[in-house]
Amino acid sequence: MTTATDNSSNPFSALTAGTGANSAASSASSSASQVTNAYNTFITLLTAQLQHQDPLNPTNTDTFTQELIQLSGVEQQLTTNQTLSSMNTDLTTITQANGLGYVGKTVTAGGSVAPVQNGQAQWDYTLDSAAQQVTLNVRDSNGVTVYSTTGDANSGQHKFSWNGTSSSGTTVTSGDYTLSVTATDANGNSVSTSTAMIGQVTGVDTSSGSTQLQIGDVTVPIANVTAIN
Question: What is the pLDDT of residues 17-29, one digit of tens each?
Fold first, then answer.
């Protein structure tokens, strides 16, 4: 059998081209399958080459060495793929376990939507500078303002709790509500504000591939949590 110097008899020529196309169009799992198939093909061809080589024209040692180097590279790639897959599984498990640790805890998270829990909805709001007038509006899921009041005008962070009673006297026991903060200074200029919701974590959802905390009916990415109260 002649040496495997021709690209058509060297499985790694096809592997090199296939891997590039595969990485652009296929998932990691299909890439690993392709590498595994190429590895098995290489072993088969190399074994047959050694068994059937012409004693008067043996395999060129340079080519043989190159093939061994290629074999080592494929083995390393297979090991790397398996290790990365295992690490991904471990990280997913750790993330899920981390999310479960929040259940039952009261957290503060960036956002303006908060659920009514235990008869109230809670927020933090922050003024970047002191204001002359601060108006707090609570809106329902349809965008209708159900409650309005004035807020603390000092610069910094402030807490606001709404007891679920609308301006018309109607009391709600559930639902998601949005707090909007409007602040102006003595000259009538707008003052920058930001809001954060406060609520008790009631569940964890990882179906999307990332950990989402369920706070009543509100879904909050775990990365948005800024404090555990």
Answer: 344 434 443 455 6
pLDDT of residue 3 exceeding 50, the answer is no
Q: What is the DSSP string of 129-165?
A: S--SEEEEEEE-TTS-EEEEEE---SSEEEEEEE-SB
Q: Which of 30-39, 50-59, 183-192 is modeled with the greatest confidence?
A: 183-192
Q: State CA 25 to chain mean position distance.
A: 22
Q: What is the pLDDT of residue 34?
A: 65
Q: DSSP assignment, residue 178?
A: E
Residues with Cβ within 8 Å of residue 54, at least 6 apart in sequence: 1, 2
**HSE of 110, CA atoms in CB hemisphere, 13 A:** 7
What is the DSSP-derived secondary structure letter of residue 53?
Answer: -
107-198 is a CATH 2.60.40.60 domain: no
Question: In this structure, how many other beta carbons lie within 10 angstroms of the beta carbon of residue 198?
Answer: 21
Q: Where are the alpha helices (DSSP H) in the chain?
A: 11-25, 28-52, 61-100
Residue 49 to residue 67: CA distance in whole angstroms = 12
